[in-house]
Write a structure and sequence with these properties.
The structure holds 2 protein chains of 2 kinds. Chain A is globular. The longest helix of chain A has 31 residues. Chain A has one domain: ABC transporter involved in vitamin B12 uptake, BtuC, CATH 1.10.3470. Chain A is mostly helical. In chain A, strand 1 and strand 2 form a beta hairpin. Chain A has 11 helices and 2 strands, in the order H-H-H-H-E-E-H-H-H-H-H-H-H. Chain A has a two-stranded antiparallel ribbon. By secondary structure, chain B is an all-alpha fold. Chain B has one domain: ABC transporter involved in vitamin B12 uptake, BtuC (Orthogonal Bundle). The two termini of chain B are 21 Å apart. In chain B, 50% of the residues are buried. The chains are: A mainly alpha, B mainly alpha.
Chain lengths: 304, 324
């Protein structure tokens, strides 16, 4: 039981990180129709900016600000320099252009920050763990991560549903030609959404930095998982991104705990371990394949 | 008229370059040149195959590395069992290319039939992502094969053998790769210009109109997907023999991205363009990595610029005849 609760919490924490990444990506895709592979690079830029801000100032809050600004600005730069020319183009060219940007960003980051991965400690006020119930102490940092994810979910919901910008975002996702025709400066809206998506990546980066390794290429691994999330949830929908992120987080975390155990019931230990590791890593892709076969547009697709 | 003559000249020049590469390598005294040419020949087979569905079928597969990896691993695993003497499903194994290579290609065709049947239920972005998902599954299965080296991959003792042809000689192996490249490209060109290929292209131009003309898209696309996978698998088979090493990286998603980049770089839907694309991509990679260890800082923007400005790739204008 303790294991189960712990794994559910881990799943929530992973899911909330995925949500921070996926919500921006799904908006970018839903509104602009761009497959943006650079999204993982924003996350990496955020983590590096945060690590070096913390290293030089010692303050985690400055780190958060650095991550938001660094990743947000980089995203705006990418949109203005490259992505804005790709809106009407085939997905193929978007994949190629943003793939090139990934290579560029990886090298640029390693040139600027050095090859040695920076370390970032858990800030003092988030260290230690809290007893949730007898027998289960859960790290405060991970709880904070879940809380941040929840706050962003609520904030995004409010932004999208109850503000003028949100109204334009929804309208843009439904029918961008119409929004353009109604005299809205769609260019500025696009840049804004890109910057917002980048800033959310930065937030994910700074929260993940003390928990995971900061390194070149950290963005790509999480990028593919993020795509799984938005495809499972339904491309273009923030609600879908939330559902997809939680589902993928849970499948990954519970799979990690239980698949090897289940296999050990029927297979010799050595085989079960290696096969289990493979199955665990593949489990989210199996989930995605099943969802796509049953509901080709994802669980909660955007209308339109 | 002018372009058709120019096209002939470029094709003849390219073929001449491919055929004389070993002599050029000898003349300049750099053994690395032959290796470079060989890598180009092998990757070009994969690029031509991918172009078949990407350019002519508009099926953007972001998971073709799975066939590259499977072809390579089929060779690697059979070689492993032949080397250790452990039977594989009761079979002693073999080193003969005429047995091993067709087996590897059949494996790729079967995987492609399964993946294609499922993936073709979707289209657009979902198709891109579901092919990626299947490729990731293959990747993680390969990583989890601990008895075949897991993450580290598998070293092969020696290349497969052909009767009368000594594949262990670099020059001979190179010519075999070039012959297979030329043969495969010719086969793909015939496929593209056949009735089958025309239907495939019609489906790309307007799926709805083709369906109204009485075409069922699924079998055409599935067969194209399988042909393309077999070609990519052949490239994997040759790569395993060339490098005498296979690792899960062969099936990594970045490899799929690289294949797409090569095809777009060369010119979609031209078959010959992707061969030029391969040559430029791999040569550029080589030159830049000699020049600086941070070669990706140049390679990345090059790819981005090609996507932004090169609407038809390097050779699209030269080799392209596609409409719509």
């Amino acid at each position: 039981m303790t294991l189960f609760v712990e794994q559910v919490l881990n799943g929530l924490q992973y899911g909330s990180m995925l949500f921070l990444l996926a919500s921006g990506l799904t908006l970018i895709f839903g509104i602009m129709g761009v497959i943006n592979l650079t999204h993982g690079a924003f996350y990496m830029v955020g983590a590096y900016s945060a690590a070096f801000a913390v290293l030089s100032t010692g303050s985690f809050l400055v780190g958060i600000a650095a991550a938001l600004i660094g990743a947000g600005l980089y995203a705006v730069l990418v949109e203005i320099a490259v992505v804005q020319w790709l809106y009407r183009r085939d997905h193929l060219y978007q994949v190629l252009a943003t793939l090139g940007l990934i290579l560029f960003t990886n090298e640029a980051v390693s040139l600027i920050f050095g090859r040695r991965p920076p370390l970032m400690d858990i800030p003092p006020f988030l260290q230690g763990s809290v007893p949730l119930f007898p027998g289960l102490d859960y790290p405060l940092m991970r709880l904070a991560f879940i809380a941040v994810g929840a706050m962003v979910a609520i904030g995004l919901w409010a932004l999208v549903n109850h503000t003028r910008v949100g109204m334009l975002i929804r309208a843009g996702a439904d029918d961008r030609e119409m929004v353009d025709a109604l005299g809205v400066d769609i260019r500025r809206l696009y840049t804004l959404v890109f910057g917002l998506g980048g800033a959310l990546c930065g937030l994910a980066g700074v929260m993940a930095a003390p928990l995971l390794a900061i390194e070149i290429g950290m963005g790509e691994r999480v990028l593919i998982t993020t795509f799984v999330v938005i495809v499972v949830g339904g491309v273009g929908s923030v609600r879908g991104a939330l559902v997809g992120a939680l589902l993928v987080g849970m499948v990954d975390s519970l799979g990690r705990a239980y698949i090897p155990q289940l296999l050990q019931l029927s297979l010799p230990a050595a085989t079960a371990d290696t096969l289990g590791a493979g199955l665990v890593s593949a489990s989210i892709y199996v989930l995605m394949a099943i969802v796509l076969l049953v509901r080709p547009n994802g669980l909660l697709p955007a209308r339109g | 008229m002018l372009t058709s003559r120019l096209r002939l000249i470029v094709i003849a020049g390219g073929l001449l370059l491919l055929l004389t590469a070993p002599y050029l390598a000898q003349l300049t005294g750099s053994a690395g040149l032959l290796g470079l040419a060989n890598r180009i020949a092998i990757y070009a087979i994969a690029a031509v195959s991918l172009d078949l569905i990407l350019g002519y079928g508009a099926l953007v597969s972001f998971g073709h590395a799975m066939f590259f990896g499977l072809g390579g691993y089929a060779v690697g695993i059979i070689a492993f069992h032949t080397g250790t003497g452990e039977p594989l499903f009761g079979w002693k194994g073999s080193n003969a290319a005429l047995i091993v290579w067709p087996l590897a290609l059949v494996a790729c065709a079967l995987l492609a039939a399964a993946v294609g049947t499922l993936s073709l239920k979707t289209s657009g972005v979902q198709f891109i992502m579901i092919t990626l998902a299947f490729a990731q599954m293959v990747f993680f299965v390969l990583v989890s094969l601990q008895s075949y080296g897991g993450d580290d991959g598998l070293l092969l003792d020696r290349r497969n053998t052909l009767p009368l042809i000594d594949l262990s000689r670099p020059t001979t192996f190179y010519y075999v790769c070039v012959a297979l490249l030329v043969g495969w490209t010719a086969f793909c060109a015939r496929v593209v210009n056949s009735r089958f290929g025309l239907v495939l292209q019609a489906l790309r131009q307007s799926e709805r109109r083709s369906i109204n003309l009485g075409v069922d898209p699924f079998p055409f696309r599935l067969v194209a997907f399988i042909i393309s996978a077999v070609g990519t698998g052949l490239a994997g088979v040759l790569w395993a023999n060339y490098a005498r090493f296979v690792s899960p990286d062969m099936a990594a998603w970045s490899k799929s991205g690289e294949f797409i980049a090569i095809v777009v770089l060369g010119g979609l839907g031209t078959l010959l363009g992707p061969i030029a694309g391969t040559a430029v991509f791999i040569a550029l990679e080589q030159i830049l990595s000699i020049w600086t260890e941070h070669w990706m800082i140049v390679m990345g923007p090059v790819l981005t610029l090609v996507a932004l400005f090169g609407r038809r790739g390097l050779a699209g204008r030269l080799f392209g005849e596609r409409n719509g």
